[in-house]
Predict the 3D structure of the following.
Amino acid sequence: MIPIQKLLSSLERFQEKIIENNSQIDQIEKRINQLKKQLEEIKDKVQKKKDEKMKIEVQIKETELMIKEEEEKIRKWEIQLRESRKFREQKTLIDEIAEAKREKSKLEDEALKLIIKKEEIEKELKDLEEEYEEKQKRAEEEIPKLELELQRLKTESEENHQKIKEIEKNIKEFYPEVSKIYEELLKDSRNSNMKIIASIEDESCSSCNVIVFADIRAKLYADPNSFDTCPNCGAILYVKVEEDSE
Ligand SMILES: [Zn+2]
């Protein structure tokens, strides 16, 4: 028969391992999500930049078309001017040609500005695409490793839960009175952070930090088959036993 003190000691050890495992699992899951989110964000930025580029290309085409229209007007009016013999008609045509040339020049300035803007956008797009590639590469390297580690931790956690069940079974079989208190405490602890099993550290209960009476301590130290609860918080007390059996 395994001493109850030893069973309680292992029980708490496995519970601590589970808590530690869960916190590691939590951290890894956060990191995976962070990597995926970063990738999504940069992908979004690339798409927006591509849309911006497309929009400006359409603007450039439209402006070029407008320039062509002005050129055609100028050509047409210059022919009319050469053929015209009427002074007033000539005067009107000259004015119209001048106006069209001004308009054409304005459009050419606009087109030039748009082309410069387009080049800037293309450069920004290239930088974003490089950043995306780099982030994607990093995620592709890191995520499978993290997922493997996650799997390992989950398996370990599962094993620790299994071990706890075995210990609980042992306690139930050999120390039914402890098992009864344990199950009661377990029910009560669902809604609080209180510890069900607490070791004695520096003469105090490790759950509530209140000093445990000397006679209780003496009993637990003297007899590994004895048990007691903390008079203050009710946790099942144990003294730490050498961890020689895994
Ligand atoms: Zn206590």
